[in-house]
Amino acid sequence: MAEDNSSFNKDTIIIKPYKKSPILLRMIVLVFAMVCGIYICSICLQQINANNAKSLSFEVIETPCQNYSINRSQIPYLHYPKPTTFNRAECACNPVRLFAILSMQRSGSGWFETLLNSHINVSSNGEIFGKKDRRNNITSIVRTLDRVYNLDFFTSASKNECTAAVGFKWMLNQGVLGNYKGVVEYFNSQGVSAIFLFRKNLLRRMVSMRANSHDAHAKILNGIHKSHTHSPDEAKTLSEYKPMINLTTLVTDLQQMELATKKALVYLNSTRHIVLYYEDIVRNRTKLEDVQKFLGLPFMELTSRQVKIHKGTLGDHIKNWNDVKKTLKGTDYERFLHADDLR
User: Fold this and answer.
1) What CA–CA distance (Å, rounded) separates 253 from 156?
2) Which whole-number Å values give the CA distances from 21 to 15, 24, 27, 34, in the listed order?
3) For residue range 92-128, what is the model confidence (pLDDT) as tens digits?
4) How far apart are the C-alpha atoms of 121 and 114, rounded to whole Å?
5) For residue 329, which phi and psi values (nearest 5 degrees)?
6) Where are the beta strands (DSSP E) in 74-161?
7) Does the pTM exceed 0.85?
8) In 3-state terms, what secondary structure has residue 177?
9) Digit-coded pLDDT (tens) for 138-177
């Protein structure tokens, strides 16, 4: 038995466990690492391209027009409107300045606006706040201003897409003084320049107001009311009416006019503005150069076809002239009796 066992042990085959090839394992790990690396790199490249595209898009939107020759102090007053009603095309990078003519009725603002509109690059859109629904409150006022200054408000004065200055006439009794805080905030935040236009001789303004009010009802010119005219014959016809001035309220009325002017200058003093007087423009046309400089416009000779209605001395246009002279004698307003404009 002992021999048999010994013989079995010698002939027994010992089977060792299989060992994997180290080269194969290394190849598997290497391939896996390469696949992971390629995947991670592709993800990173996609993110980088997306970020570059976003930053490029942002730059085009935010800074479409660059003009490094412009005085930096003027940048807040330069705008690049994007109208919703038309395309500015090749003029998209032409800056537009915003303005408002602040005045009172029968102070020469209509004549002054026609002068401005004779400039090829100016659009002044008239008395837009004459309609009450546009000035019910500061919200409706701002909504209207936004339309005008985005070049989406069309009137006969609207120029082409290359407008360099856009604005309108705004009478002081059309929501300016009643909403002055909101108006000042809007003007300053949006870079709107104010042009104050007043009349020194308030008695002449009163005569013009009375005569215009009379014609609104009488319609002297063939049943048609005209506040302004281009015809010398029509101007002569309109001037034939001589209003009777109320002596009882004369001084008080003049004081109220003066007060409205002072309020406007105080309330809107913090805005960028220029103050003009009708009589000064009549006597010295270089004042119009000052306005063009103020608006950053190329200089042009400004013209108007409007014809002055009440020419000559003031006494020729007041029915109770002698009584008016007596009433104003010795008051602060006596000077109006002797001051005549030359237009």
Assistant:
1) 35
2) 18, 6, 10, 21
3) 889 999 999 999 999 999 999 999 999 999 999 999 9
4) 13
5) -65, 130
6) 97-103, 122-124
7) no
8) coil
9) 999 999 999 999 999 988 777 766 889 999 999 999 999 9
Q: Is the dihedral of CA 220, 222, 224, 227 positive or negative?
A: negative
- Round to whole Å and give the CA distance between 24 and 44: 31
Question: DSSP secondary structure string, 128-139?
Answer: GGGSGGGSSSHH
Cα 190 off chain centre by: 7
> CA–CA separation, 115 vs 301, rounded Å?
9
Triad 116, 120, 122: Cα angle to 5°: 45
Closest CA to 136 of 192, 188, 174, 191: 174
Q: How many CB atoms are closer than 10 A to CB 191? A: 17
**DSSP notation for 199-236:** -S-HHHHHHHHHHHHHHHHH-TBTTB--SS-S-HHHHH
What is the rounded CA–CA span in Å between residue 157 and residue 101? 15
Residue 327, CB half-sphere, CA atoms under 13 Å: how many? 17
3-state secondary structure of 154: coil
Which two three-digit tokens encode residue 2? Answer: 């002992």
